[in-house]
Amino acid sequence: MAMTTEKPRSTAHIGRGTTAQPSKVAELLSPWEEFRRIIPLVSLKSLLHRPHPAVPKVAVLLCTMQAQRFLAEQLNSVATQTHPSWAIWASDDGSHDYTHDILEYYQSHWGEDRISIHEGPAEGSTANFLSLTCRADIEADYFAYADQDDIWESDKLERAVAWLQTVPPDVPALYGSRTLLVDARNQHIGYSPLFERPPSFRNALVQSIAGGNTMVFNRAARDLLRKAGENVEAVTHDWWAYMLVTSCGGRVFYDSHPTVRYRQHGENQFGANADPVAQLRRARLLLQGRFRGWVDANLKALHRVRHLMTPENQHVLDDFVQARQRWLGARLVGLKRAGIHRQTALGNLGITLAALINRL
Length: 360
Fold this sequence. Notes:
- There is one protein chain.
- The two termini are 41 Å apart.
- α4 links the parallel β2 and β3 (115-119).
- This protein has helices at 22-38, 45-48, 71-79, 99-110, 125-133, 156-164, 201-204, 219-228, 237-247, 276-287, 290-304, 311-325, 328-338, 345-356; strands spanning 58-64, 86-92, 115-119, 142-146, 151-152, 173-182, 188-191, 216-218, 251-263.
- The longest helix is centred in the N-terminal third of the chain and has 17 residues, at 22-38.
- By secondary structure, the protein is an alpha/beta fold.
């Protein structure tokens, strides 16, 4: 359903039987004019007339909420992809800033076939992404999650599609990558952690290795997510996608080449876990029992899709659940036998500590 425009908007009250003072008009218009001056819209004319062979279509699943500050840069980075066949499905969770104006502005220039605007469930970012993923009217060969405040490298979709095309279409497949960290001004400040162990369900039970902002998946993975349903109570959509695809025998590829400029700023829901301060913050959450709560929620969600899992991963899930419920020594032995692990030595030390104090 297309998004309505009933909520207060930047200029909605001007010219509707009210008289605004000049200073008020300037106050309302200045942020919008500043946006158009600093971040010009990328034209699609050259893309539309550029000859290219038939390529798979990618549906870009973009969720927004109060996104005016960085949204235009994200949209422009989609438009400059070397993979030319894409369409943005934007689901807004009730923004009352200029988010909707920016989306409409781009839609008026690019067309509704390139960007469509929809209402989100207004129940948080995870619910918004899962709701968008499960929409029956989105038809594409591949699907890419997009956050509102990042910048895609120009080859992001090309790299993802190249790998996904190596997987048989009936096998669920999920691509993710490392990220390049930037500050609010898009200045390089580092990289997300580099993970070298193969993706697996045994890893997914205690760790999400790729951010949703890097993820691209095939139709079989999307069908799997739809079977699981949009109302699943998972912690985050990206961690859920990793767990679900690996548990059901799908393939996951972690690209060590960064494909997204992951913006770090004061409004991040989850920042990158790449510096000592962030790692200490995560350690504190572990000690407080927050991580155990996340695992509880994920296990509840996984039990709903147990019938879709491979027999091997059903056993892994059972072993993990039982190990968490045992006394200290048996708990540690059970986790080791089940093969539960994180990607780094420090991460494995963390889950061992969590198991020792019953916070896993």
